[in-house]
Design brief:
Largest sheet: none
Number of helices: 21
Oligomer: single chain
Order of helices and strands: HHHHHHHHHHHHHHHHHHHHH
Shape: flat
Helix content: over 70%
Number of strands: 0
């Protein structure tokens, strides 16, 4: 039984009953405050110290580990049994933290933090709710409900803190227990008061003594007053969000009961899928004969023009098809004919996925790799994997589609985040570039449009993330003057990151790039 779950109010309660219920819930809030305040303030302090202005370093891994410890501690305070499934979410959190400091790709960093938030909330939902038998829609609704619903608890640290202090004053506990409680309270209060003073005085001393400033900055701390004020605000906001997030989940306001879905007559779904199947069969035949086998094309269109377009549209259609199948499975009654139609629908979708992937590969052969093109290929791989589970799910309702999908998405994304994509982009592209392809920019005979195009190529490679450093260095000598220009631009682009390469800001990708380019 969760001791932090409030007793619900009823519409027909009298004023006295309402007041009594309010007092009971105030006591519950006070007990949560007693359990959560100190670990949450320490957690927020760690977050502010480790992550503020330092979101790509090895400290993210430390923060992920502290997040696991914090959640485990809070779970123990609820009295609820620790669920074995929590380990999966915790391992993913730790891997996301490790991935963050191994890569220099800013897009991956953003993806990692978004994935970290989703996994953290999923962990809390899994622990506090009976999520057995939940589908994708139910779980996604629970995660979003708890993310946005936590805003209703932003004032709870203050209201429940006030209730806790009133409870302490009214408790009339023994002198010894009161002395211990007071001592703890004063120690915490002293630390809270001391921290801003230490930071402010430390910054002042650093501005007065160059040796002391060098010592502070050598371990990675920014001693500017503005930075310290920003960090304190960051810590305060982090405490409010962490406390509110944990508190709202502990209230268990989301309805976790699985209500039986009223399924409709399958005839409508069969009609709908039949029409789509006819369309997709025609499309699939065209893909096989024209795209894969090089059949007859419309007059005036070359095979290259035909094959190198349409991959984004087909990716969108594949995603839409996935949603269609899941929706029909959720709301249409089981029917043998419908299952056969959905199977044909899935087979055609696989042809659509193959068509999109094949077109993208042909496009890459001509226009080379970019992050977006790699992302599309990864998305297509994920869709192909998910449709394998969907095909099984069509014929077996007991198939754990949500767990299968969660594992597929997690494993494929983690592989993508650890892959250091920019290295493979630079290596693949530069390996296919001949030195002769880079024109002499000083030659007045060189067309302006060619100069502009090749200048853009150099700019593109020079602005890749630090993950690309080994590949750029690998091809630098072979590309001659163009290789040197790419390396010079690359060094200039990441000069500020190279300057921050210290113990506190350690990012393996940045560190390796700094060593390669002699900074």
């Amino acid at each position: 039984m969760n001791p932090f779950k409030e007793i619900p109010y009823k519409r027909d309660m009298t004023s006295d009953e309402y007041k009594m219920r309010f007092e009971e819930n105030a006591k519950i809030g006070a007990s949560f405050y007693k359990a959560a305040f100190l670990p949450t303030i320490l957690y927020a302090l760690a977050f502010g110290i480790l992550i503020y202005d330092n979101y790509t370093s090895i400290t993210m891994t430390v923060y992920a580990l502290l997040t696991i410890i914090y959640c485990t501690y809070m779970f123990s305070k609820t009295g609820l049994k620790f669920k074995i499934g929590n380990i999966f979410y915790m391992v993913v959190l730790l891997l996301l933290g490790i991935s963050t400091f191994l890569t220099g790709n800013g897009t991956i960093h953003v993806f990692n933090y978004c994935a970290f938030l989703l996994m953290l909330v999923s962990l809390l939902v899994h622990q506090f709710y009976n999520d057995k038998g939940w589908g994708l829609g139910k779980y996604l609704a629970a995660v979003l409900f708890n993310i946005f619903g936590s805003a209703s608890c932003w004032l709870r640290p203050f209201t429940e803190g006030s209730a806790y202090r009133k409870q302490q004053r009214a408790a009339g506990t023994g002198a010894e227990k009161k002395e211990v409680s007071s001592s703890t309270k004063y120690v915490v209060a002293g630390l809270m008061i001391a921290i801003p003073f230490v930071l402010a005085i430390g910054a002042t001393l650093a501005s007065a003594d160059a040796v002391f400033k060098n010592f502070i900055t050598s371990i990675g701390f920014n001693v500017k007053i503005g930075n310290l004020v920003g960090r304190l605000i960051f810590i305060f906001v982090s405490f409010i969000l962490a406390y509110a997030g944990m508190r709202f989940v502990a209230l268990e306001k989301f309805e976790d009961d699985i209500q039986p879905t009223k399924k409709s007559n399958p005839i409508m779904a069969m009609t709908f899928v039949t029409v789509l199947d006819i369309l997709y069969v025609i499309f699939a035949i065209i893909q096989i004969t024209c795209l894969f086998m090089g059949g007859t094309l419309p007059e005036g269109m070359t095979y290259a023009e035909y094959a190198r377009t349409g991959f984004f549209q087909l990716l969108f259609v594949s995603i839409l098809n996935l949603l269609i199948v899941l929706f029909i499975k959720a709301f249409a009654e089981d029917n043998a004919v419908l299952k056969i139609l959905l199977l044909l629908f899935n087979i055609c979708t696989y042809i659509v996925i193959a068509s999109s992937a094949y077109r993208m590969m042909l496009y890459i052969e001509v226009y080379y790799l970019t992050f977006l093109r790699v992302f599309v290929l990864v998305a297509l791989l994920l869709l192909a994997t998910l449709f394998l589970g969907v095909t099984i799910y069509i014929f077996t309702d007991k198939f754990p589609m949500f767990k299968y999908g969660l594992i597929c998405i997690t494993v494929i994304y983690l592989a993508f985040s650890f892959a250091r994509v920019d290295y493979w982009i630079a290596d693949y592209n530069l390996a296919r570039v001949d030195q002769a392809a880079f024109v002499d920019f000083s030659d007045p005979k060189t067309p302006v449009d060619m100069k502009r195009r090749l200048e853009n190529d150099i700019l593109y490679y020079g602005c890749l993330s630090t993950d690309a450093a080994p590949a750029i260095k690998k091809h630098e000598e072979r590309l001659g003057d163009a290789g040197e220009r790419i390396s010079l631009l690359f060094t200039e682009t990441h000069s500020q990151e190279f300057k921050r390469d210290d113990f506190w800001h350690y990012n393996k990708s940045v560190h390796d790039a700094k060593e390669l380019f002699g900074e």
